[in-house]
Write a structure and sequence with these properties.
Structural class: alpha+beta
CATH superfamily of one domain: ATP-grasp fold, B domain
Radius of gyration: 21 Å
CATH topology of one domain: D-amino Acid Aminotransferase, Chain A, domain 1
Distance between the termini: 45 Å
Shape: globular
Strand content: 25-35%
Number of helices: 12
Length: 428
């Protein structure tokens, strides 16, 4: 089969890496891809938002199956467009994609069907939002309505921080049109969990839980990012929790989808917060998380391709997934200054020093190959993923590889996985 993966990040490199292992695959393509995907697939120079060009290219090349990585093409209706042209594709349609592309849409859905979530108010007026902040209790959370690459959520400790965040989002338009409306909600204290699974419209097939590190700096300090690292599984998230989530969230959510006419076939990512023994929905994503995909796909033993096809065809009934029981850890290496301003175009040194170990992988996230040199091309540049007999070994393997790779102003958190192996002392 000829497979096209759409996207250019670490998630897409990990998807290609896993799909390459399928005996069903004869050719792999990636649009637009990066310096790492070029090693295992043919990169196609079409941007992710050029839906018509992607569709025509897939028709011309007789692509058998397309896998959509990022949220932007899903929100633009790529699945609807491909399906109208009789092209097989994995991902949610445009209506279902609103669960991620609009925080307002998802919050109203949660409120309407009384699913557990933080209490919130919705505003499309800066002055009304500002007035609300003036009398609100703190801390609180301000969320830009639209897609913002993981940078649209601000946790504000006081009125000064909240007013500043609101002005940047709604008046200064630092996030563009994504900040036309905002959700202002109560701050919930607790443990965040990334809960992903395949949903074929009726049947939900959960993945093991994972946790990511969203803040830029060690100790969970600094600005929110697209993700600085992740690990799986989550030791305390056991079968009891799985059953609790199914009962409290998944069953009512599937009923809500049916009532709203949402046909959801793809990846459902629920950002959970566990507070005082109760789960709350923080957010929805409609695609593989990044960097959660990297740690989950690295643990998946089953052939990924037929499972994605079954999801797209509403045929998940009876399918079970096999997982490596060993934990995996991902450390994200970024450009200095991320998630704010940073420089690109630096040559990455030391890639050849990364050990050829089946329990270690290096996924490219924002790189480009020019004149046989791998250069940085964005904020989150590389993902180093490792498995071990326990978390301590996995973390040590990952950081041992990280220290082989260098470029000017490279930065990474030094405490990825510290929550699951707090005794571990990482090298600086």
């Amino acid at each position: 089969m000829k497979i096209l993966v759409i996207g250019n990040g670490g998630r897409e490199h990990a998807l290609l890496w896993k799909l390459q292992q399928s005996p069903l695959v004869t050719q792999l393509f990636c649009a637009p891809g990066n310096g790492g995907t070029a090693e295992i697939a043919q990169n196609v120079d079409i941007p992710i938002h050029e839906i018509e060009k992607l569709k025509l290219w897939a028709l011309d090349q007789k692509i058998d199956f397309t896998v959509v990585g990022p949220e932007i093409p899903l929100s633009l209706g790529i699945v609807d467009a491909f399906q109208k042209s009789k092209l097989s594709i994995f991902g949610v349609n445009q209506k279902a994609a609103q669960l991620e592309s609009s925080k307002v849409f998802s919050k109203r859905l949660l409120q309407k069907y009384d699913l557990p979530t933080a209490q919130a108010q919705i505003f499309d007026s800066y002055s009304k939002a500002s007035s609300y902040i003036s009398q609100a209790a703190f801390p609180l959370v301000i969320k830009a309505d639209g897609l913002a690459g993981g940078k649209g959520v601000r946790v504000c400790k006081n009125k000064v921080e909240a007013k500043k965040a609101l002005k940047e989002i709604m008046e200064e338009k630092l996030l563009g049109d994504s900040g036309a409306s905002v959700v202002i909600e109560e701050f919930l204290e607790g443990e965040e969990v990334s809960y992903l699974g395949l949903l074929d419209g009726k049947i939900f097939l959960p993945f093991p839980a994972s946790q990511d590190h969203k803040r830029a700096l060690d100790g969970d300090l600094g600005l929110n990012t697209g993700g600085m690292g992740a690990y799986s599984p989550v030791p305390w998230f056991d079968e009891v929790w799985q059953k609790k989530i199914q009962k409290i969230i998944m069953k009512p959510l599937l009923k809500a989808f049916k009532s709203e006419g949402i046909s959801f076939r793809g990846i459902l990512y629920i950002g959970l917060l566990i507070s005082q023994g109760k789960p709350y929905v923080l957010e929805f994503n409609v695609r593989f998380g990044d960097p959660e995909a990297q740690v989950l796909l690295f643990r998946l033993k089953s052939d990924l391709l037929p499972v994605l096809q079954a999801t797209a065809q509403s045929k998940l009934k009876g399918i079970q997934l096999e997982w490596d029981l060993r934990p995996s850890v991902c450390v994200v290496m970024v450009s200095g200054g991320y998630p704010q301003s940073y420089q690109t175009g630096y040559e990455i040194q030391g890639l050849e020093k990364v050990p050829q170990d089946p329990d270690v992988a290096l996924f490219h996230a924002a790189t480009v190959l020019r004149e046989n040199k791998v250069l940085t091309q964005g904020g989150r540049v590389l993902n180093v993923v490792a498995k071990g007999k326990d978390f301590e070994e996995a973390v040590q393997k990952a950081y041992a590889c990280v220290h082989h790779v260098q470029w000017p102003y490279v930065f990474f958190r030094k405490d990825i996985g510290a929550r699951v192996c707090p005794s571990l002392k990482l090298r600086s």
